[in-house]
Design brief:
This protein has 698 residues and is α+β, with helices and mostly antiparallel strands.
Length: 698
């Protein structure tokens, strides 16, 4: 033990030479907050009560974020975060994406089928139990299997004891494991949504840019026992505005970053993963645009998927731009090699850590050799239709549910079953024309890339991809929620005896998909976890809480200043106004994507044009932070994060606050629009904590 500590300490001394961290960098764990950094730079005293309040006021929207903004369960997020619910509530004759929506009374609030919101209740350090499962001499795959059994047991036991959804989160590449406990809410109702034209003003051309002029907000209400949820943990509204240099926080659920990845892992993303992903997105974007051009209803149906594709494409291109920056990659290589050279000078350290980078590099080479089949089969890239996703879930659930909990695929363990079952039994709109269109394209790519695979030969059988897609979509009965329930009740016998073509397809490709998944877990994921943990543990011991772990879609807190920046010698102001919104629309003739909805045109005279609409800060963020509340020192709601500028995208790997900015909707802009454009005074009163107006006397 003494020698091991000495080796770690020596490694830490080496690491300290090469691992700087910018002061505003970091998506911090709520149970490991950057208290000292905030005190030193911003003279802010962060208390446990302040942190707990923000934690309980923060809401997880699937892969995004939101927050409670009233004691009656009112939750604010981005319009683009809630757009799936808005789209599902829309019809050909009532397009809420176009018209927006406002429930003037609670009786008018619309139930959002299938929506599930989560609030983090507690975090428990489970590192001792999980890491303790590893034994000397275990291979990477054996260690991963041992950890997985402990994780399954912890999640099951904690869920049963608390009634909460409990999940173990891997932090610092396996150096630390925390058990997160969530309260789940499934009765969620739409209260307010702006028109898509103002939520996404500027469209894809302005996405990931700044200055911006978007009112990207929507409001939902959580109900419990058919009554609005009562909670003391909500964010009071900031009524005094924001100043340049002011400290703000963003509380949200950032998806993933790669700042602790090795050079070989970055090379894999740059040379294999990102090119494949970008090509896929570019092709699908072109096809979805063609689909939308068939008519107004086709355009309405394609709007949501097209937004998602364009947003993901632009983000991935931005991430790739960082990896194509030779200066960035050279610095990464230089720092890594300097660290390894220092380790080689100490035989004991070389024995302990010397093979770490080489083993990861070898794993990345192996991954590259089967990345495409893994993507097409196990990740479902070859079968792009919601029907296949449903069929695979039904098939695998039937296969997994009778196994011991710790031997199941992770997404089918007991802790995940309530959510999965709810999703499989909730009726949602599905548009077969779009399903056929998407499936046709993915089958064409499957045949083009993996035509020699026997499963592909069986599936295609010399037929055209479009004809196969039509047969599969027209033949399946999985659109019917009652049919899905019968499969759930019938179990494996019902699956094996099914004549549904989509179930048959899921059964056909399941063996090869599972094989590829196992290959990935044993040859890539477990190797990255084992060796990444060696590097990450040293980093953690070096900096303590001053080096945050990479993002993992779990609740994090970032901080920064409201701050302008300079681009091409021009100062970019820290906020924009309604005046700028109207001017930009006029500049482009009020034509898409700069077309204002009628509500904004008709109410222009009532709007105070100098009111801030959007603003920026140095808060560290990434995809998943959309909808994050922006909070001032007092813990007040000051805005909602909805984007980053183009300079923020390479920060997935390397953070700098020179020009990197998160973009938010300003709290004053939200109130101004609600009052002057939408005449939603009761909603404003609720946000500002004013008592509801008394009914007029008869």
């Amino acid at each position: 033990m003494k020698h091991a500590k000495a080796r770690i300490f020596a490694l830490i001394l080496v690491l300290s030479l090469f691992i700087p961290i910018s002061a505003d960098e970091g998506m911090w764990l709520f149970n490991m907050a950057p208290i000292d950094i905030l005190k030193a730079k911003y003279n802010f005293e962060m208390t446990p009560d302040w942190m707990k309040h923000i934690q309980l006021a923060s809401v997880r929207f699937g892969g995004a974020s939101g927050s409670f903004v009233s004691p009656d369960g009112l939750v604010l997020t981005n319009h683009h975060v809630g757009r799936g619910a808005v789209q599902n509530l829309s019809t050909k004759d009532r397009d809420l994406m176009k018209t927006g929506f406002y429930a003037k009374t609670r009786a008018e609030e619309l139930k959002c089928a299938g929506m599930e919101l989560m609030v983090l209740q507690d975090i428990v350090d489970a590192t001792f139990q999980v890491a303790g499962a590893e034994k000397p001499g275990m291979t990477a795959a054996q260690a991963a299997e041992a950890r997985d059994k402990i994780i399954a047991a912890l999640e099951k036991q904690s869920s049963e004891q608390t009634g909460l959804r409990c999940t173990v989160v891997n932090l610092y590449s396996g150096s630390m494991y925390h058990l997160y406990k969530y309260k789940i809410y499934t009765d969620v109702r739409l209260v307010f949504a702006v028109e898509n034209a103002i939520a996404f003003f500027g469209g894809d051309p302005d996405n990931f840019t700044y200055p911006r002029y978007d009112l990207d907000v929507s409001l939902f209400r959580i109900y419990e026992n058919d009554r609005p949820l009562k909670s003391d943990h909500y964010l009071k509204w900031n009524t005094t505005g924001l100043k340049e240099g002011e400290l703000v926080f963003a509380s949200g659920h950032p998806g993933s970053t790669g700042r602790l990845l090795t050079y070989a892992q970055l090379e894999f993303l740059r040379d294999v993963s990102y090119p494949f992903t970008i090509a896929n997105y570019e092709r699908r974007r072109k096809l979805l645009k063609e689909f939308g051009e068939k008519g107004p209803e086709y355009a309405r149906i394609a709007q949501g998927p097209l937004f998602g594709i364009e947003n993901s494409l632009k983000a991935t291109i931005g991430y790739q731009s960082g990896l194509l920056d030779q200066n960035l990659m050279d610095k990464k290589a230089k720092d890594e090699e300097a660290l390894r050279a220092s380790i080689r000078q100490n035989p004991e350290m070389e024995n302990e850590f010397g093979k770490t980078w080489d083993e990861i590099a070898e794993a990345e080479k192996k991954y590259a050799s089967f990345f495409k089949p893994y993507s097409f089969f196990e990740r479902g890239t070859g079968f792009t239709t919601s029907y296949f996703n449903t069929a695979r879930s039904l098939v695998r659930l039937a296969m997994e549910k009778d196994k011991p909990n710790d031997q199941r695929l992770r997404e089918y363990r007991d802790a995940s079953l309530p959510s999965l079952t709810r999703r499989l039994t909730t009726p949602l709109p599905i548009y077969d024309d779009l399903e056929i269109f998407n499936l046709t394209d993915s089958l064409i790519q499957l045949q083009k890339q993996l035509g020699s695979y026997q499963e592909v030969k069986w599936l295609m059988s010399g037929k055209l991809a479009e004809n196969i897609a039509k047969e599969l979509i027209s033949g399946t009965k999985l659109k019917d929620a009652d049919v899905r329930k019968k499969y759930l009740e019938g179990g494996l016998d019902a699956i094996y005896m099914s004549d549904d073509p989509m179930i048959k397809l899921a059964l056909l490709v399941d063996p090869i998909s599972r094989g590829l998944r196992k290959k990935y877990e044993q040859e890539v994921d477990s190797v990255e976890a084992k060796n990444g943990a060696l590097i990450a543990r040293a980093l953690f011991k070096l900096k303590g809480t001053s080096i945050p772990p990479d993002a993992t879609s779990t609740l994090r807190l970032s901080f920064g200043a409201v701050k302008s920046y300079v681009e091409n010698t021009k100062k970019i102001p820290f906020f924009t106004t309604f005046q700028g919104l109207y001017e930009k629309s006029a500049k482009f003739g009020n034509q898409p994507p700069y077309e204002l909805p009628p509500s904004f045109i008709n109410k222009k005279a009532a709007v105070k044009l100098g009111t801030p609409l959007n603003f920026i800060s140095t808060c560290d963020s990434i995809g998943g932070n959309s909808g994050s509340p922006v909070i001032n020192r007092k813990g007040e709601f000051s805005g909602v994060l909805f984007d980053g500028n183009i300079q923020s995208l390479p920060a997935r790997f390397v953070y700098s606050d020179d020009q990197n900015r998160s973009v938010m909707v300003h709290c004053q802009g939200i109130i101004e629009a609600l009052l002057k454009v939408y005449e939603a005074k009761p909603l404003v009163d609720e946000l500002l904590g004013k008592p509801p107006a008394k009914p007029a006397a008869k």
